[in-house]
Write a structure and sequence with these properties.
The protein folds into 2 domains: about 180 residues, Beta-Lactamase (2-Layer Sandwich); about 250 residues, Rossmann fold. About 30% of the residues lie in helices and about 25% in strands. It has 13 helices and 20 strands. It is globular and about 65 Å long. The chain starts with a strand and ends with a helix.
Length: about 450
């Protein structure tokens, strides 16, 4: 019997074959049970000639958007028929976020509670990974061989990368990263797991309500994107969101289908700069950049905040206070450092640092917010920062009162935070426990 499974709405079937022998026509997927051909592509709607817009450009954008959406749905449907074999048990486990295969049979997993560890599964081998890679290349209409040794594949909730054994000399290498269309973080669990304290959680919720520009820092796998998704989930329902990503991870349009959300994806044709120009014309309240990791992304952030839009984004940095300098280091041009840093300090209100580590006392992997830092330009036109919250590895927590600059900004949005820091005497640090705050 042909069996299959469903992962977050994506079916992973067995004995499926992807064919692409009809170049120039609609692709077909066949299996022992499935044949699916895509036809009848929708056409862009006609514009009202009385509208005060550039009709030609708008039709082109509509056509491109429809084509992009069709390609997205078609790709998702095609990928759903890939035979993952024994690897599917890891793909269906919601606790596992990443799967790494290398070295002729080693399978390393990253889970929410254990962190990174090696699986003892011996049924996963080079032949299986090569089979999956070839299926993905067929779906994408690409080749995977010595002449084309690298392959990136992306379905609705799964990103895959393969390296051919002509390059990876100890055997084919592959990484599978799950990007589920759901909010993993929940307030009750965040508090019980000591991911964040009660008052800092409330402070961040008010910061979102007060339209603070926020950038989340941390290492790879620390949970930066998940925190951005959680913060974005607390924006007002009537505030338009546009996400800009080079690889789809946020999925806010699928998580909140009732909201005014546009999901944009950059590619070789549409760069960050190109997408951002169109994004601003769409009049969003919030712009979400999945990650600031290039000069183009830094420029996109600077232009977004300078034009009055609110942003949520992530960046690789070891602590929150170093976010502005980390952004400057990504620039490829000789922009005046003082001018650039003042722009970031003036328009980015908050930096949050998250950390993922193995806790030997609790014997589990844990993620936690370790810093919340505000940025400002003071009355003397000097860039400065104030670490509102810090948590050390041993669990010691210190607080400082937000500066007058942040409080004035929030009060201008009708948001007040003094009550959250009423136990702090001026700006002296104090120790606190979650149980006491509850």
């Amino acid at each position: 019997m042909n069996e299959g499974m469903n992962l977050n709405g994506i079916s992973y079937g067995t004995n499926s074959v992807v064919t692409s022998s009809n170049p120039g026509n609609n692709p077909t997927v066949t299996s022992t049970n499935v044949t699916s051909t895509f036809t009848n592509q929708p056409q862009p709607q006609e514009l009202n000639p009385t509208q005060n817009v550039d009709n030609t450009n708008t039709v082109a954008r509509q056509t491109e958007a429809i084509s992009s959406n069709d390609n997205y749905l078609r790709s998702d449907s095609l990928f759903s028929n890939i035979d993952f074999g024994p690897l599917r048990k890891y793909l269906s486990d919601d606790n596992i976020t990443d799967i790494s295969y290398s070295n002729g049979g080693q399978v390393w997993l990253k889970s929410l509670d254990k962190g990174v560890y090696r699986s003892d599964g011996t049924e996963i081998n080079d032949a299986l990974i090569e089979k999956i890679a070839f299926q993905c290349s067929n779906v994408m209409g690409k080749t995977f061989n010595m002449a084309h040794p690298f392959l990136d594949s992306e379905s609705a909730e799964l990103r895959m990368n393969f390296v051919h054994d002509s390059i990876a000399r100890n055997g084919i290498a592959a990484v599978f990263r799950k990007t589920p269309a759901k909010i993993r973080l929940e307030k009750e669990k965040l508090l019980s797991d000591k991911y964040v304290t009660v008052n800092i959680h409330e402070f961040l919720m008010r910061a979102v309500t007060g339209h603070c520009n926020i950038i989340v820092s941390g290492e790879t796998g620390s949970g930066k994107t998940e925190l951005v998704k959680y913060l974005a989930a607390h924006t007002a329902e009537n505030e338009k969101i546009i996400t800009i990503e080079d690889t789809l991870e946020l999925h806010l349009d699928r998580i909140f289908p009732q909201r005014d959300i546009v999901a944009m994806k950059t590619n070789n044709i549409a760069s960050y700069s190109d997408v951002l120009v169109t994004c601003m014309r769409q009049n969003p309240k919030w712009i979400l950049l999945s990650e600031v990791r290039s000069a183009e992304a830094v420029t996109a952030v600077r232009n977004s905040i300078s034009s009055g839009h609110n942003i949520l984004s992530t960046i690789h940095a070891d602590k929150a206070e170093s976010i502005p300098n980390r952004m400057y280091s990504l620039l490829e041009t000789n922009i005046d450092v003082d001018q650039f840093l003042k722009t970031i300090h003036r328009y980015v209100q908050l930096g949050i640092n998250v950390r993922g580590r193995y806790d030997p006392n609790e014997k589990r992997f844990r993620r936690e917010i370790t810093e919340v830092t505000e940025f400002f330009v003071d009355d003397n036109n000097e860039a400065g920062h104030n670490t509102i919250y810090r948590k050390t590895v041993n669990g010691t927590e210190t607080y400082h009162m937000p500066s007058k600059y942040l409080k004035e900004y929030l009060e201008g949005q009708g948001v007040y935070v003094d009550d959250l820091f009423s136990n702090i005497n001026n700006t002296e640090a104090m120790a606190s426990k979650v149980e006491e705050l509850i």
